[in-house]
Amino acid sequence: MTGTPPNEADGDAADGDPPEATVSLSAAVVGRYEKFSRVNSPYSAHDRGRAVDLYPRDGVGRSPVAGTVRDVRTVGCPDRPYAADEDHLIVVDLADGWCARADASPGTVARILHVVPEVSPGDRVAAGDALGPTTRSGFFGQWVDDHVHLGFRPPDANPRRASGSLPVAVDVPVEPVAWDGTGAVVERGPTHVVLDGPRRSDPGPPFAALASDEGVPLDGGVTHYAGGGTFEADEGASAPEGTTLSLFGTEIGTVRTDGADARAPGVDWGSVDVRANGERVTGLSLFAARGDRFGVKVVCPNRTFEIGESVTLDVVPSDDPIRLGVG
């Protein structure tokens, strides 16, 4: 799993329906990070693109926003042997200038998680400032890299809650890269491997992502999280609501735009399994990432693949697809 707990700091009632205003992150904000995703998470904070995970290159949790630190809190985590037993919430009152550039209302508040805070209430921070080191949170699945979680709350809303967060748009074009699902293992961890594909050979936008068969760049956990999404494509590749998307020749889901940013709509995954060399694995973890080789993890806690081993992925219909929750 990745993301943040839905209501980590208190037990207040939900704040009602989320506002429709969208906070827009520019290339200058996102370009400080190695990769990003809006919906690669089972947690409600990411539901329908209402948060973004930003993956730094160096283990430093740099601020994606400018403003004044309002609050710093430590919260408990699920007990995971591979992770810390506590996480941290940093609340920032956004500067008016930052809000104006992001199309956010004055008084909007940022919520930042998964960083061990080296800042205190009252500190002023600029975009790019170090807030502290990232932490391996117990809210992560074991295959998830350390990252900065960023969400926004409207003025006068409870900043400690995730439910009711504002939609987040990332105004960065993402190149969709086709792939046949074959490659050799170049990285392995306890619960995942990375293959040497997909690759892109021509210069393009800084970020790229795995494309559906229709040429739409994909975001999320395919299909181990119930819903996923798409990125805004570099050449305008888009999928209207109701469009069926396929991967490796099999239908994987349907585009929906209700409650999602129209530039990067969501996807309701269908009932399918991902297989590696003919055996079912948990799924594919997708992001927009930099570089020629990027951004696809094969999540396979019950399989072992060796470095250099050839792997072929496919997708097949399933009567019992894997769906991971937050427990």
UniProtKB/TrEMBL annotation:
Q: Which residues form the DUF8155 domain?
A: 25-169, 175-315
The stretch of residues making up the signal peptide is none
**Protein name in the entry:** Peptidase family M23
Recorded hits in InterPro entries, A to Z, give: DUF8155_C (IPR058817), DUF8155_N (IPR058468)
The annotated regions of Acidic residues compositional bias extend over 9-18
- Please give the residue ranges the record annotates as the region Disordered: 1-22
Pfam families, sorted: DUF8155, DUF8155_C
